[in-house]
Structure to design on (227 residues):
């Protein structure tokens, strides 16, 4: 069975500061990994995905994530936070051949302060 | 153009009623999903259809019945609604059954009185 752990249900950063959202996964096979963002009263939007190609994945809005197999991690980073980045972020995992079934973490609420 | 659209956006009803939520996608995808997001924002998959065939059926009460009349539509019917069914229900779609990214609708907020 696969699972995802997101450390920190709430993260607060200053505008212009580094954003680091943590995600660790558990999977019996090499997984596919995703980060989604959810703005208030909206659906989820894909930020980036890892599907066994390059371990450093670049996504939209300046976000990137690095797959580290030895640490079973897929942390999301952005060098400089913007007010518009305030949202809920979800890490998700799926297993190849598993019908694209996504298992989500519990989410991290990112707050950006002036 | 809305890629994945759900109706209604809000649904307020009483316990014991039967209700349906509709989902349509115009992305040409062949796989569609239903997710439930609870009050703590935890997301869990309920069902998935590929070309009208049920491929994922998680542990969901049989009061929930998905129906896919064609690959662009996936509806969710809920019988005998209970307080615990209050949640936001999201429809999503993707191309194929592999690692294709899933595109989500804006959700249907279901409130049971």
């Amino acid at each position: 069975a696969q699972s995802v752990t997101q450390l920190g249900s709430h993260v607060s950063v200053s505008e212009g500061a580094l954003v680091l959202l943590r995600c660790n996964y558990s999977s019996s096979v090499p997984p596919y990994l995703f980060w989604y963002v959810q703005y208030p009263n909206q659906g989820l939007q894909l930020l980036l995905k890892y599907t066994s190609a390059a371990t450093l994945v670049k996504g939209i809005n300046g976000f990137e994530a690095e797959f580290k197999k030895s640490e079973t991690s897929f942390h999301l980073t952005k060098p400089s936070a913007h007010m518009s980045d305030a949202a809920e972020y979800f890490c998700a995992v799926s297993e190849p051949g598993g019908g694209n079934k996504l298992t989500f973490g519990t989410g991290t609420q990112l707050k950006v302060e002036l | 153009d809305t890629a994945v659209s759900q109706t209604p956006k809000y649904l307020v009803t009483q316990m014991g009623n039967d209700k349906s939520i509709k989902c349509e996608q115009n992305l040409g995808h062949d796989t569609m999903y239903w997710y439930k997001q609870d009050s703590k924002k935890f997301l869990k998959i309920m069902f998935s259809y590929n070309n009208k065939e049920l491929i994922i059926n998680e542990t969901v009460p049989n009061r929930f019945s998905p129906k896919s009349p064609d690959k662009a539509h996936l509806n969710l019917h809920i019988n005998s609604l209970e307080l615990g069914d209050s949640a936001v229900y999201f429809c999503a779609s993707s191309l194929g059954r592999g690692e294709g990214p899933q595109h989500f609708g804006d959700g249907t907020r279901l409130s049971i009185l």
